[in-house]
Amino acid sequence: MGVNWFTPTHSLSDFAADIASKAPSKQPIVVSPIALAAITKIDAGFAWGQSINGLPPEQRLAVRQKEIAPLVKDLEEWMRPERAKLSRDVDIAKAMDSREGIRVMS
């Protein structure tokens, strides 16, 4: 089973290392530019999340509202038109349509 990229403990470099570990040794690694952009955007939110660990609940809420909520809105506004460009049979489209993708976009 792969790494769950919807956790704040993984970075973009972890994502790249996981992909590299699964690739056949002589084949180039192909990462969808859309997937990479999405992970980069999601990583920005998780970085804020990690920075507020240990703060009192009211301070965490304030940071979430001021810093993280706009990032999630930006992700959703970016993701919807990107998804519309893709065939439903493309792996990244399937991931965007999955419950996890919808949860991120909500």
Overall description:
With 106 residues, the protein is mainly α. The protein has one domain (29-105). It is built from five helices and no strands. The chain has helices at residues 12-22, 33-51, 57-84, 91-97, 99-105. Helix 2 (33-51) packs antiparallel against helix 3 (57-84). The longest helix has 28 residues, at 57-84. The protein is flat, with a radius of gyration of 15 Å. It starts with 11 loop residues before the first helix and ends with a helix. The relative contact order is 0.12.
Order of helices and strands: HHHHH
Q: Quickly give the structural class.
A: mainly alpha
Helix content: 55-70%
Can you summarize the main beta sheet? none
Quote the average pLDDT.
77
Radius of gyration: 15 Å
Shape: flat
Question: Uncertain runs with pLDDT below 50, 5 residues or more?
Answer: 1-7, 101-106
First-to-last CA distance: 26 Å
Number of strands: 0
Oligomer state equals single chain
Query: Strand portion, in percent?
Result: under 5%
